[in-house]
């Protein structure tokens, strides 16, 4: 059974200050379907504003979808802040990008790691202290660092504290939202290795969000590429990065610095404005392969003929002529 | 071991006299030394990459060279632009050089641009300052520059404010303003770090294009080894306020000599091949106020021996043109 299932989930925000001051609706996430298996990592990759964080909040039940359903361990996600949801939170935790923002500057490291145990009423004071000591060790912090305050730690150490706190209740699911994006590559590698080890030890399922394709490939068993609120390609990371099917995924891979692309085919144009979504395929104004059907009809994510790669593109599906699809 | 592809060098050099020569550049803030004597040069037309983890002194090197550090900074050494000494030069001399022969762009274009002025006016102002054009002439040149950096519909965009433009477009505006003085050298400090990957590719492409059109030299400061591999002919790796390795880009990425450089490359996830555990560098960059004795990298180094703590390793040639400051370096 899947640990987490998003089925055609959509989220629309009302935006007061629109592009030109007008009120407008932002379709942050549109008909997104994803699954996370126990002990496996689904990587979600895409450029800023494509809906990755919103997807993460929907997955944790922090927000309610405007359409579609979220299921955790086979059960419908309870409404945010309900008793059932609060109980469930012990089993699913968020690891955010900015650990300093996520930590309380006035509390010691030990207090913050113990916090979820207190909230969920797990153990007595002595047991909690033992548990905190073990968690510190698990995330590679020294026992004497328990008494420190967040500002006295480096960025990498703070991210370890956030991770220890997320692990305190023994969760089955971690939603990691750009957890290493603010870190230097050397420290990033430490945290990525740590996440891989923790997952292997505890069979944690992970929804791992990043704009960094190298990190996504390193950590994911399955990858979803998003563009303007939609998943446009999904599959095995090796296959997707070696031979992306969607023209946007191709552009992303070609743009990776130090990669094979050598930036030969640089994608033109600015990122789209989510409040002013293009008709048809949202990528068509920037797409080198776009045909008239792309302007008219939103392509659905479905297996392409041949290898069954999931891709939402008329051209990649070989259905670029209008009305060809049954 | 290395996951970076370095394209064949775009420019080949007839050895020429350096455009800028930095000698023994030292910077201290309130008695704490942040830069420990940097030697660096850049030749006309060359592209030099400066890499290293944050806090290694990449930005301070060029801020010091151009007299842009606060008064509290204690700067010593020498920075020569061809014959001319820049360090502790007078205000008027520096004002002519900065934005003139040497221009600089930064990570965050939005904070470098003035939010209350239209972008056309800001570029025209740079033209007025550095080219002595005014009025319609300056505006015409500003339009030409905005066009050159690929602002679509430049004429109409002249009247836009920075907040009406995307991050990538604002970085193009900054580049246009930097080009106003027809610089011989552009210092780009993390110019694409705040941008999405496809927009980063556009800006890097633009810089490469401008280099081949104008022949200007480029110093590219980046924490991203991939960016430097794509863009640069020669690379300096900095660690804790010193240059620890210097080589042609091909030599550096194919045969890194210093364990720190090897560590940085090993920490970068590959894009193909079997998944391998990342080689994380343990620990972190030392604080300038508590530097280890001897080699500053030794406490994090897998090759450390006792001799590493005894003294500073000199920056020696491993092979001709390939320098590394490490007594345990791989020698060619
Ligand atoms: N609380 C909110 N109110 C209004 N708009 C929002 C809100 N959260 C996100 N958005 C918008 O939804 C889109 C997707 O945002 P987000 O999920 O944060 O993307 P990502 O994490 O991929 O950068 C963006 O256009 C963003 O501005
Ligand atoms: N204005 C300043 N005052 C005090 N210390 C500074 C100042 N600017 C930089 N430093 C210190 O100098 C060192 C090098 O910084 P910098 O050159 O900005 O690093 P980077 O390699 O990330 O560009 C760091 O330890 C930093 O904290
Ligand atoms: Mg986000
Ligand atoms: Mg810097």
Provide the gyration radius of chain A in Å.
21 Å
The CATH topology of the largest domain in chain A corresponds to: Rossmann fold
Sequence of secondary-structure elements of chain B: EEEHEEHEHHHHHEHEHEEHHEE
- Approximate strand percentage of chain A: 15-25%
Largest sheet of chain B: 8 strands, mixed
Can you walk through the features of this model?
The complex is a heterodimer of chains A (326) and B (332). Chain A is α/β, with parallel strands linked by helices. Chain A has 2 domains: 4-242, P-loop containing nucleotide triphosphate hydrolases (Rossmann fold); 248-326, no CATH class. In chain A, 31% of the residues lie in helices and 21% in strands. In chain A, strands 6-7-8-3-9-10-12-11 form an 8-stranded mixed β-sheet, sandwiched between helices. Chain A has a 4-stranded antiparallel β-sheet with strand order 2-1-4-5. The longest helix of chain A is centred in the middle third of the chain and has 18 residues, at 185-202. The mean pLDDT of chain A is 92. Chain B has 332 residues and is α/β, with parallel strands linked by helices. Chain B has a domain at 1-7 and 16-101 and 183-281: Rossmann fold, CATH 3.40.50. Chain B is 31% helix and 21% strand. Chain B has helices at 58-65, 91-97, 109-112, 119-131, 135-148, 154-157, 167-179, 197-214, 225-231, 249-254, 259-266, and strands at 20-29, 32-42, 47-51, 73-81, 84-85, 102-105, 185-189, 217-221, 234-239, 242-248, 316-319, 322-324. In chain B, strands 6-7-8-3-9-10-12-11 form an 8-stranded mixed β-sheet, sandwiched between helices. In chain B, strands 2-1-4-5 form a 4-stranded antiparallel β-sheet, with helices on one face. In chain B, strand 1 and strand 2 form a beta hairpin. The longest helix of chain B is centred in the middle third of the chain and has 18 residues, at 197-214. The two termini of chain B are 17 Å apart. The relative contact order of chain B is 0.15. Chain A binds chain B through residues 47-48, 154, 156, 184-190, 192-193, 196, 211, 213-215, 217-218, 238, 241-242, 251-263, 266-268, 270-271, and chain B through 3-7, 53-54, 166, 168-169, 196-202, 204-205, 223-227, 229-230, 263-264, 266-272, 275, 277-282, 284. The structure holds adenosine-5'-diphosphate (ADP) (2 copies) and magnesium ion (2 copies). One magnesium ion (MG) binds at residues 58-59, 189 of chain B.
């Amino acid at each position: 059974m899947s640990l987490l299932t998003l089925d055609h989930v959509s989220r629309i925000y009302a935006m007061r200050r629109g592009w030109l001051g007008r009120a407008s609706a932002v379709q942050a996430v549109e008909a997104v379907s994803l699954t996370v298996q126990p002990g496996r990592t689904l990587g979600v990759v895409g450029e800023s504003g494509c809906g990755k964080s919103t997807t993460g909040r929907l997955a944790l039940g922090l927000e309610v979808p405007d359409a579609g359903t979220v299921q955790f361990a086979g059960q419908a996600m309870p409404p945010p802040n309900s008793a059932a949801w609060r109980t469930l939170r012990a089993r699913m935790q968020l690891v955010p990008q900015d650990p300093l923002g996520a930590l309380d500057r006035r509390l010691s490291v030990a207090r913050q790691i113990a916090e979820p145990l207190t909230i969920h009423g797990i153990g007595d004071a002595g047991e909690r202290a033992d548990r905190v000591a073990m968690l510190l060790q698990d995330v590679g912090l020294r026992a004497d660092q328990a008494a420190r305050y967040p500002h006295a730690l480096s960025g990498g150490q703070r991210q370890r504290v956030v991770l220890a706190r997320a692990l305190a209740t023994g969760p089955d699911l971690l939603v990691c939202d750009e957890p290493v994006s603010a870190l230097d590559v050397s420290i990033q590698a430490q945290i990525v290795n740590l996440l891989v080890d923790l997952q292997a030890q505890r069979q944690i399922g992970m929804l791992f969000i990043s704009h960094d394709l190298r990190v996504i490939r390193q950590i994911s068993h399955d990858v979803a590429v998003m563009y303007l609120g939609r998943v446009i390609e999904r599959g095995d990371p090796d296959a997707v990065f070696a031979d992306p099917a969607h023209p946007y995924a191709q552009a992303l891979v070609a743009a990776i610095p130090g990669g094979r692309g050598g930036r030969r085919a640089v994608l033109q144009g600015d990122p789209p404005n989510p409040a002013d979504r293009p008709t048809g395929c949202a990528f068509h104004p920037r797409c080198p392969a776009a045909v008239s059907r792309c302007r008219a009809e939103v392509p659905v994510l479905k297996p392409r003929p041949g290898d069954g790669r999931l891709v939402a593109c008329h051209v990649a599906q070989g259905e670029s002529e209008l009305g060809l699809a049954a | 071991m290395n996951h970076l592809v370095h394209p064949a060098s775009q420019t080949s050099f007839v050895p020429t006299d350096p455009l800028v020569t930095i000698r023994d550049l030292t910077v201290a803030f309130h008695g704490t030394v942040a830069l420990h004597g940097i030697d660096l040069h850049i030749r006309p037309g060359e592209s030099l990459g400066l890499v290293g983890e944050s806090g290694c002194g990449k930005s301070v090197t060029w801020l010091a060279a151009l007299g842009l550090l606060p008064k509290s900074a204690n700067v010593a050494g020498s920075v020569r632009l061809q014959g001319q000494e820049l360090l502790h030069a007078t205000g008027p001399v520096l004002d002519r050089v900065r934005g003139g022969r040497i221009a600089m762009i930064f990570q965050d274009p939005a904070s470098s641009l003035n939010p209350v002025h239209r972008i056309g006016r800001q570029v025209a102002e740079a033209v007025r300052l550095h080219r002595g054009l005014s009025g319609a002439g300056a505006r015409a040149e500003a339009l030409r520059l905005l066009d050159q950096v690929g602002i679509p519909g430049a004429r109409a965009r002249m009247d836009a404010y920075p907040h009406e433009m995307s991050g990538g477009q604002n970085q193009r505006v900054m580049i246009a303003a930097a080009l106003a003085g027809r610089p011989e050298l552009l210092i780009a400090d993390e110019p694409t770090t705040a941008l999405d990957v496809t927009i980063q590719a556009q800006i890097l492409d633009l810089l490469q294009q401008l280099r081949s059109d104008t022949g200007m030299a480029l110093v590219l400061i980046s924490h991203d080894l991939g960016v430097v591999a794509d863009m640069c002919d020669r690379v300096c790796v900095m660690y804790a306020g010193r240059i620890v390795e210097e080589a042609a880009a091909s030599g550096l990425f194919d045969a890194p000599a210093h364990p720190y450089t090897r560590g940085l490359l090993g920490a970068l996830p590959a894009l193909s091949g079997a998944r391998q555990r990342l080689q994380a560098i343990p620990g972190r960059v030392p604080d300038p106020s508590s530097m280890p004795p001897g080699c500053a990298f030794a406490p994090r180094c897998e090759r450390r021996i006792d001799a590493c703590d005894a003294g500073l390793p000199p920056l020696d040639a491993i092979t001709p043109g390939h320098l590394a400051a490490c007594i345990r370096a791989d020698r060619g």
